[in-house]
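Re: weekly structure request thread

Next one in the queue (336 aa):
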Amino acid sequence: MSKAIRLAVTMGDPAGIGPEIVAKAALKLAPEIAKQRMELLVLGSSVALNKACAQLGVDVGALPLKMIDVGPVAGEIVTGQIAPVGGEWAYRAVKKAAEMVQAGEADAIVTAPLSKEALHLAGHHYEGHTELLAHLTGQRDAVMMLAHGPMRVTHVTTHCAIADVPSRMTPTRLRRVFSVTLEALECLGFDKPRLGVAGLNPHSGEGGILGKEDEQIIAPIIKEFVDQGYDVIGPVPGDTVFIKLRAGQFDAVVAMFHDQGHIPVKLLGFDVDPVSGKWQAISGVNVTLGLPILRTSVDHGTAFDIAGKGIANPDSLVDAAEYALKLLEGRRRKGL
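Done, posted below.
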């Protein structure tokens, strides 16, 4: 490869586990960094990173990353506490990362978790990273993909009430999600990707008896893509489409709403100790497609309850960085 892919890694809320998992992930990614496949440009609070490294017994100077402090921000960061100061640090990190990618100083954004509550307390009223990045790039038709191993799921709608889903399932939106998903799969190395499309209603409407959206809105758009030569199948009932995805019959599935797509991926990505009932590990990646900026993210929250204890698992952040690397390398191969 001609040059390393530069990942702008945002620390998220510095009062959460962000600083800790950034430090741990950097150490895990050291072999790829040494091969000059990637560079880590970490944005956030250098004080929070230093504190996390001290708690872990790690020399911050030995981490294979470049720290970019986005402060100063008035107020003290209190580990484990939701506060406006944490939301402000998180917002500034994302804003700076977006500016860097748009200026050609970085190639993609990888985000550690932020707190929506803290973000709102700081005066930044966005539903999350996706909506914030859409605002910063001036583009509103982002597409969310969740990925855990071979389970890849994109979403037609995400953060809206169930009652609003049918009205947001427009032909324009469906075409956009199908196109962006197929392009991402091609970048991941699938020459002729197989895309399954989940139905909205039980049994995909049962011929219109249980709802008409599947045959009147979804099916015609699927036919458009099939007629263009794409391998798009559906609408497949939501209670079987993810079984078929797991069985390898599809390379990705398009879900119609948030929980339809999130539940199966998170069910597989969260490893639970059957004795204690506690999560042992969390894996999976949240990818924002369809914007001028590629963004991948952990698929978990700020975990304020375990922040500062040295027990946070960095695997999801490592997965996010590696996923960004794969997508960007694929885009380079395709000349995108």
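The chain has two domains: 1-142+291-336, 143-285. The chain has a mean pLDDT of 94.
Next request, please.
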